[in-house]
Specification:
The chain is mainly beta and 90 residues long. The protein has one helix spanning 60-64, and strands spanning 34-35, 38-39, 50-56, 73-79, 85-88.
Length: 90
Amino acid sequence: MGEFATCAENPYNAAYGIKNEECDGMAKKTGKVVFKDKELVCPVCSSTDFWERKTQLNTAEMTFLGLDWANKDAINYVCGHCGYMFWFHP
């Protein structure tokens, strides 16, 4: 399995519900990520190359009120090798 230079090239996107056109707003290059003084390592394939995306954390209350836009975003780091995704709450 090869590494993917951009999120649009990652064949695992469909499994995560990511459309290739959504990649336009994301950091497309993979790279090393340090979070709270620790380098992220993929627990599936041991890769250290990730690309970043944000995912809106919708809540039932805000959706009911039509205020989805006011929900916070989680930060995701997606493994550029196998597609494993880390989620970090804001």
